[in-house]
Amino acid sequence: MKKLLLICASVLLFLSKGLAQTNNSTITWSGYVDAYYAYDFNQPDDHLRPSFLYNHNRHNEFNINLAYIKGAYSSTRTRANLAIMAGTYAQYNMAAESPLLQHIFEANVGIKLSQKHDIWLDAGILQSHIGFESAVSKDCWTLTRSILAENSPYYESGAKLSYTSPNQQWTASVLALNGWQRIKRLDGNQTVSLGTQITHKPNENLTLNWSTYYGNEGINGISQKRYFSNLYAIYQHEKWGFIAGFDYGSQQKANTDGYNNLYSPVAIVRYQLAPKMRLAARYEYYQDKNGVIIATNTPEGFQVTGYSLNWDYQVAENAVFRIEAKNYHANSAIFTEKSQPKNDNLAITSSIAVQF
Known about the structure:
Elements: H1 2-19, E1 26-40, E2 62-74, E3 78-86, H2 88-93, E4 104-112, E5 118-127, H3 147-150, E6 155-164, E7 170-177, E8 193-203, E9 206-216, E10 225-237, E11 240-252, E12 259-274, E13 277-288, E14 302-316, E15 319-330, E16 335-337, E17 340-342, E18 344-355
């Protein structure tokens, strides 16, 4: 990790000196640190919260969820981003990647394909085109992520062709990817995955989005096609805000004509209590009876309802203190407390996040 950071810092410093001399180009530096403490009332002995969570998932210890340093270069026809990260998010969400890549938060380059139109081709490790939540909790309406966000891609590796309309109201993208949240392609899988995204912002208060994914999740000649659709709407007006999202996925049973399905609705309401204080309440449900994404080894599979209440205090323009209470209720006893199965999981999480 130390060697990686030194190499990346040297590259960024070299690029900043050289590229800063290019006409019409800029280089910006930014950073982010999210420190948290979570208490899970099921008190897991290994301090690890349920396995379907990848953010703020360490119980009864002070820790860093995500910390990164980022360099961004942009000019009239080119752009590039490189961000190096650490934290428990990187530890658990990137566990399937090679050690050298587990600390890459973002690394991509882009070229503008038209002088008259806003058409870009970007390639590398990209932020996911699916969902309204990211790993940067400060930018999300709730402190912790929804189940649907935790179990759909946060990042992807591939190429993206995007177009933005002159009035900035429409954005459309087509992607060729290495797979479902993968930098390294699965061994024994030579299939390119595909993604699409259409975003419409008819006014400053409303955002509408539809994202899709298609790929083969099988290996060694086994066909397991996955189709995934993500819909959401975000509305913000004065003190009130509302988000409604719905994910639907379908995956082929190995080498058969049958499919297993999953779906997840989520709704978040946010209210501005005072200039520096906000409240947010969330309802969510996630059903994956056949373990397409989340396996439970129970007859009813994963069927979980979640409720959370969030309180935010804006310490400064770039810093926020947050505390959240969240409860999960499952149809089956998929949680444990002192080695005993149970249907519920209650946790309280607090965080201080600073962006600079």
